[in-house]
Design a protein that fits this description.
eight-stranded mixed sheet; 40% helix; two-stranded antiparallel ribbon; D-Maltodextrin-Binding Protein, domain 2; 285 residues; single chain; Arc Repressor Mutant, subunit A; globular; alpha/beta; 25% strand
């Protein structure tokens, strides 16, 4: 048994799937799954049982996770003694499910390569309110979220994102697309009940548009293919669309934009949090 295995087990319990836990810890999912299985074999007990697309703790797993949290808390307290000396530092960043892939796929890998002694942990939150609560309570050093935020949080804008409409060439629309044209348009949407879907539903409600949901899926890699096949159009952020071959990407008029930033409580940041804040400002925008 080792600390890495305990961290992986706790993260899996917190996030509900091994894929999400691996993303939060910035490790490969197969490596995390393998470490959890090795711990289960060592203990001679099953810690997780499958539940739908995720996992849930078994009775033994609940006891193991409870003790693992105590052990990891003690380790974190010991490491805090050396924080600021460049060894044993931890950076905790809160993010919603919508923004987490951008964070773990773009900013954190480069920062981790430059700061190999820093252990980075993503605190996944459901919604903006939960992100702010994590920072206020000290569960996260920083948070990436939509701006503006309440005045009790310090905000640092990083970049502005544009919402665009992605369609098959056969769909004839003006460019840029008037917002009124979104009313009644067939769209490929994230699954109902997810943070991404709630975000798009709120966006459409603000502009008074009611789209026709043609496909519901969280498999982002499949979205471009469905658009090409004419099953529906896609509303998404320009900088998050990677595969646009054979598709038409149109701006909206008036434009819909979203400002993303890092926020923190009005208190002294740890040295590594200050370093990441400066790094993020330098590498975004």
């Amino acid at each position: 048994m080792n600390l890495r295995q305990l961290r992986y087990v706790v993260a899996t319990a917190d996030h509900g799937t091994m894929t999400s836990a691996a993303q939060a810890l910035y490790v490969a999912q197969p490596a995390l799954s393998r470490a959890v299985r090795e711990l289960e074999r060592e203990l001679g007990a099953e810690l997780f049982a499958r539940s739908g697309r995720g996992v849930v703790l078994t009775a033994v797993g609940e006891q193991v996770v409870r003790q693992a949290r105590i052990a990891l808390g003690a380790v974190d307290a010991i490491e805090a003694v050396t924080r600021g000396s460049g060894r044993g530092s931890e950076l905790r960043i809160a993010a919603t499910a919508t923004l987490e892939p951008e964070l773990t796929g773009r900013l954190l890998p480069r920062f981790a390569r430059d700061q190999p002694a820093v252990r980075v942990r993503v605190v996944r939150c459901e919604g903006r309110e939960a992100v702010g609560a994590a920072v206020r309570a000290g569960r996260a050093d920083l948070a990436v979220t939509d701006l503006p935020v309440p005045g009790d949080l310090a905000a640092h804008p990083l970049e502005q994102r544009e919402v665009v409409l992605v369609s098959a060439p056969a769909l004839k629309l003006r460019d840029p697309v008037p917002l009124a044209a979104l009313d009644g348009l067939r769209l490929i949407m994230p699954t109902r009940g997810t943070a991404r879907r709630a975000e798009l539903d709120a966006m459409l409600a603000r502009i008074g548009a009611k789209a026709v949901v043609a496909v519901e899926s969280d498999e982002r890699s499949s979205w471009p293919g469905w658009v090409r096949a004419g099953r529906g159009s896609l509303l998404w952020y320009r900088n998050q669309i990677e595969d646009t071959d054979g598709l038409v990407v149109r701006s909206l008029i008036p434009p819909i934009t979203r400002t993303i930033g890092l926020v923190h409580a009005h208190r002294n940041l740890t040295p590594v949090a200050r370093e990441f804040l400066a790094y993020a400002k330098e590498h975004t925008g």
